[in-house]
Amino acid sequence: MTKALKASGFLGLAVMMAVGLHQFVILSGGSAVPPWMIGGHAHLGVLSILAIVMGFAVPALGVVGQLRTAVTGLFIAGQWGIPGIVWLGEGFGLTFLMPTGFLWGGALIASMLIMLYKTVTTEEAGGGGRAGVAPADD
What we know:
Layout lengths: L1 H27 L6 H26 L4 H27 L9 H21 L17
Pfam family, one: DUF8059
InterPro entries: DUF8059
Keywords: Membrane, Transmembrane, Transmembrane helix
């Protein structure tokens, strides 16, 4: 499951970079980039970086079973849903899709709340210090 988060993150970054290049072409042609394109680009970039981070955080916190499936599915849905509705709703005039932003945002929030739950209920392994590392004396 964490492979899906990491893969979605890297794919999202590739798509975000392609959109960024498209924006550069628009600017180079002397036109302004539409705000909806900028917004979707920014959201996809940030959420894709967070997807990669989540791919490492999920196993580190010991999220398993149905919670792991829920975190992964909810996060990936939100990662693509938020920029997707901005691009489709505003960019392609499908404004009837805009209210689904609450669904995609809710999916992201639910994913983060599951991670919060695991963070506060999971004991850290080890002493929390840097074992085997001597402090510098210079």
